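Many introductory courses stop at the sequence. We go one step further.
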Amino acid sequence: MAASQLHVQLMNGDQSAFAEVFTTLNPSMLRIALSITGNRASAEEIAQEAWLSVIENLDKYRGDAPLRHWILRILSNKALTRATRDGKTRNFASPESNGPEKFTETGDWAVAPSLWEEVTPERILAGRQTWELVQEAIEALPNSQQAILSLLENEKMSSAECADVLGMTAANVRVQLYRAREKIRQVLDAELKNRNKM
């Protein structure tokens, strides 16, 4: 359904249109809010507040961005405000040099971590442990980096779309993504060294 047609239906109080949007976006909204706040109860509350704001402000939607992005921007603003209020900081640092490039423009590894160089039965068996390690590494990232990973990987947004939703520059999204992936890479490399010592 086209965003403009959907917007008109929402403006006219079409409950089936709202149900469609809610069913489609609410799981993503919960994931994004959770990645920013780190708290499930807060994420659910923020998503509810965001839906109320969407309903109250439908007449302010100008159509400059897709309706989905507009809704997710409302959500991310609320989540970031809550995270700041609750003492969680936004780590949206300015771009800076971080040494040699380890990721391509498309976000793929320029040089894959040695852990991923060959697939063996042992590594397949260790896959679950590795995945748990990656999940722990992601949960240890600053909220801003978790939010970026969630939008890019789970919501399949581009860097520009992610920047729009989070109110950042595309360059800053790339820097934060680089830092997040580098931290995960370091965890994986350390795990490989530990496994090789055994």
